[in-house]
Amino acid sequence: MVEAKAKGSVEGWLTNLDREKEFQLVYWEDMFHKPYYWSTFYVQLTEFEEGGLAIGLSCVHLLADSTCATTFMKAWADISLGNKMTTPPLFLPLSPRTPGNRNPKSSPLHGVDTSL
Fold first, then answer.
1. From the DSSP assignment, how many helices (H) and strands (E) are in the chain?
2. In the Cβ-directed half-sphere of 44, how many Cα atoms lie within 13 Å?
3. How confident is the model over 26-36, as pLDDT tens digits?
4. Residue from 48, 40, 45, 41 nearest 3 by CA
């Protein structure tokens, strides 16, 4: 978790939006040469002096895709405003596993010479 402060308001910041300013709202760290010392998930909270809060999220795609990240941020915003979550996380169960085919002749390589 990283905390930051910014001058002005969220509305003022949004009117002068550019790529470099946007990067200031998200903490990012390149992967360290020893990954077990590297954090894979960062949240930066930026509080604006004239009101407003920005939540910046950076993580590897294995932890959250864009849908997951958006749902997380919406839920956080809902809770921060003292409301119920309007978009609670949705967890879909994995489909049941089916036993593999035990017939050796059903192999996709059956009859193919693999001794090359």
1. 3, 3
2. 17
3. 887 777 666 66
4. 45
